[in-house]
Amino acid sequence: MALAEAWDPAAVSMRNMRLQDVDFVLRVERRSFSAPWSRQAFTTELVDNQFARYWVLEYHGRIIGYAGVWLIVDEGHITNIAIDPEFRGRRLGERLMRGLLAQCLANGMKRVTLEVRVTNGVAQNLYRKLGFVDSGVRKGYYTDNREDALIMWAELSSIGPQKPQD
Fold first, then answer.
1. How far apart are the C-alpha atoms of 63 and 74, rounded to whole Å?
2. Annotation marks residue 127 as catalytic
3. Which of 25, 37, 67, 72 could form a disulfide linkage to 81, CB 3.0–4.6 angstroms apart?
4. Does the active-site annotation cover 155?
5. Active-site hit among 127, 141, 142, 147
6. Which pTM value belongs to this model?
7. Would you give per-residue pLDDT tens digits along the chain (166 residues)?
8. Which of 75, 115, 141, 155 is catalytic?
9. Going from the N-terminus, what domains does the chain have, and what CATH number goes with each?
């Protein structure tokens, strides 16, 4: 597609997710995961979950990624993150994660956690690069194939400033 071919990293921006974004987020979700979230799951997160914060990455007006976190007391729990497969390999996952961690810091979070498939080495490497460390395994966590999840934690004070890098 032309958007991905004539790549301009300066045209990528991050903003709060809105209800009208859900259909576009679902496109990324379905292209990214074998057990995608439903429209209702995203709507509930945006409307009913007081702890949830979600952001999207836009490129020339097109949503090409998103991420979410629950902010509970002083800990963030990253719920999901995805980059449209067409736009992977451009460090956008790192850019989105850095933005998400900056939002956590701005909201007073001290630690952040997430789960990642034990087979997803690419994501694990990114998280480790950003200061996350392995802390355990949730057996059979993923409902589509009962795959285990690696639990990772990061102390935000040890990560330092989170600025997007292109």
1. 29
2. yes
3. 67
4. no
5. 127
6. 0.88
7. 455 568 899 999 999 999 999 999 999 999 999 889 999 999 999 999 999 999 999 999 999 999 999 999 999 999 999 999 999 999 999 999 999 999 999 999 999 999 999 999 999 999 999 999 999 999 999 888 899 999 999 999 876 544 444 4
8. 115
9. 2-159 (3.40.630.30)
